[in-house]
Specification:
Blueprint: H1 12-20, E1 25-26, H2 28-36, E2 42-45, H3 49-54, E3 61-62, H4 68-72, H5 81-84, E4 91-94, H6 99-110, E5 116-119, H7 122-128
Parallel strand pairs: 1-5, 2-3, 2-4, 4-5
Helix pairs in contact: 1-6
Length: 141
């Protein structure tokens, strides 16, 4: 007898749930507190540029999920020094609601980044809490 998705592989929800077992999460309030206290080396936003332009957390660096591996690898022409020079820094990864950031944090961890967490609830929760937001054009390499 087959189980749900056994023939199709894992669902997105299952993959995120597995990542959640190994990747720590912070709430938006905890992330803001750490940012305010200067305890974060990098806030990484893995949403798409169109999402970023509608609003993002001040000081965040944009690295869309689809380009993350190339931005995080210092040997590629797409490497972002804002990211590659922070391999041991405390990095908070955010997306819209927490799924992409969980997978992105897991990817960074597998690439040797040592202190990566995902922000639970993502930008949606951040903005719902009334925390600062800015708008602006996404500058991509």
């Amino acid at each position: 007898m087959s189980t749900p998705n056994s023939e199709q592989g894992k669902s997105a929800i299952q993959i995120v749930a597995e990542a959640r077992k190994t990747i720590p999460e912070l709430t938006a309030a905890q992330a803001r507190e750490k940012l305010d206290q200067g305890q974060i080396g990098l806030l990484l936003d893995v949403r798409e540029p169109v999402e970023w332009e509608k609003g993002h957390i001040p000081g965040a660096v944009l690295a869309p999920r689809g380009m993350l591996e190339w931005y995080a690898d210092p040997t590629t022409p797409y490497a972002k020094p804002e990211l590659t020079t922070k391999r041991d820094a405390h990095i908070i990864v955010a997306c819209a609601s927490g799924g992409r950031s969980m997978l992105a944090a897991q990817t960074l961890q597998s690439m040797g980044y040592t202190n990566v967490v995902s922000m639970a609830g993502g930008f949606n929760e951040w903005s719902k809490q009334g925390f600062p937001i800015e708008e602006g054009t996404a500058e991509m390499k």
